[in-house]
Design brief:
Helices cover 18% and strands 28% of the residues. By secondary structure, the chain is of the alpha/beta class. The strands form 6 sheets. Strands 8, 9, 11, 12, 14, 15, 17, 18, 20, 22, 27, 30 and 32 form a 13-stranded parallel sheet that branches. The protein is globular, with a radius of gyration of 21 Å.
Length: 398
């Protein structure tokens, strides 16, 4: 089977995270949305339609014109009910709900042409009207459904116990049958993993240092590090090659991001290559317990989330200084440097240099220097296509 992901008009609902990635690359649960579908359908060939600025940064893939192609709206998650529908979807049919295309099956020749043109054309397909299925609509959906998606990903991947494990005899595993530890993982003495309320996944090569406490459902992905004495509460994902310490509750770190020190993060989502300085704290609850309003990235107008808990959403490569305080419902763009002694604004444009009572635009050359230095520490190169993507974001930043 071959599948191709496409974005609909709502992709900007997930800015600033989707300024630097397609929707299918958003991580929720253990895996990205694309990885979920690949595992659920056991797809051998995967492609995606990319926005112009993301081409060459992400692999577009290819389509074999001799086989039909299943097109998937990247906002939709592979629930068991939707999987049944798409697996039974006949060639030339399009599944939609109230005008939103959820999935379609088209011949390989047309699909290849659509991929080359950068836009699918479902108008010629026979429409099957359907009830809606599980999808992400807003930024806050990511952390709200993270716990249930960790559980679903466990069912999809069916991970077993890995080999070459380094588990201290002084580690405590509660409900061990609900704890999944991949090959090469290390659990130091004094680690407590409590899976009474949901599964805990420890990825390949992950390192859980002494005295850490982890409650499920939680995913510690491949080569991630949980620092000594950390308190990781449920509904949390620590993405690949992240380093996290302090107190974390219901948060997602995509990959290569660091929160290595004390400080609280809750009901939040961080992109790649973020770094939170020591004792950075995110407020996730208002003092009057009212619901939280955030600034919509596209319109820059305040919108009501209807949520009582909402911390921070931070785009790739943004950083905070020590003792930074982030207000409830903060939305921070890409490549920002926050070192304010006061609460910074709740809405921060990309490439902002945020001090106390002053906000300046971050120089692009200086941003590249910092990006290159940070990425080199993890053995990742700053490529020309990646720099072009960042330059496009810089040019559009206010």
């Amino acid at each position: 089977m071959q599948i191709c992901f496409f974005e609909d008009k709502h992709f900007s609902n997930f800015h600033p995270l989707t300024l630097t990635r397609p929707v299918d690359d958003l991580r929720v649960g253990i895996f990205t949305i694309a990885e979920k579908w690949q595992k659920a359908l056991q797809a051998k060939n995967t492609a995606r339609i990319l926005r112009k600025e993301l081409k060459e940064v992400f692999e577009e893939g290819s389509i074999n014109e001799n086989d039909s192609c299943l097109w998937i709206n990247a906002r939709y998650l592979p629930s068991s009910s939707l999987l049944k529908e798409v697996e039974e979807l006949g060639a030339g049919n399009c599944l939609q709900s109230e005008g939103t295309v959820i999935a379609a099956r088209a011949d390989g020749s047309s699909s290849r042409q659509w991929l080359e043109q950068g836009k699918p054309d479902f108008n010629s397909l026979f429409v099957l009207e359907s009830a809606d299925f599980k999808a992400i609509e807003h930024l806050w959906d990511l952390f709200k459904i993270n716990g249930s998606e960790i559980k679903a990903d466990i069912q999809r991947a069916k991970p077993g116990r890995g080999s070459k494990l380094n588990i201290s005899s002084h580690a405590i595993l509660v409900e061990e049958e609900n704890i999944y530890i991949a090959t090469g993982a290390t659990l130091e003495a004094g680690t407590i993993i409590n899976a009474e309320n949901g599964p805990v996944y420890i990825g390949e090569g992950a390192h859980i240092k002494a005295g850490s406490i982890i409650y499920g459902p939680t995913a510690i992905c491949s080569k991630a590090t949980v620092n000594a004495g950390a308190k990781i509460y449920g509904d949390t994902t620590i993405g690949p090659v992240c380093k996290v310490g302090g107190e974390v509750n219901n948060a997602i770190f995509h990959s290569y991001s660091n929160k290595g020190h004390e400080g609280f993060v809750g009901n939040s989502v961080f992109g790649q290559w973020c770094n939170l300085g020591a004792d950075t704290n995110t407020s996730n609850l208002k003092n009057n317990y009212s619901t939280i309003r955030i600034t919509d990235w596209k319109t820059e107008q305040e919108i009501e989330t209807g949520e009582q808990f909402f911390g921070t959403v931070m785009g790739d490569h943004s950083k905070t200084a020590i003792n930074t305080q982030l207000n409830t419902g903060t939305v921070c763009g890409v490549n920002c440097n926050i070192f304010s002694g006061d609460f910074p604004p709740k809405f921060i444009h990309s490439f902002s240099w945020v001090g106390s009572n002053v906000i300046q635009k971050y120089r692009l050359d200086k941003a590249f220097e910092t990006m290159e230095a940070m990425m080199a520490r993890r053995g990742v190169s700053l490529t020309e296509p990646y720099k072009k993507m960042m330059e496009a974001i810089f040019q559009n930043a206010r």
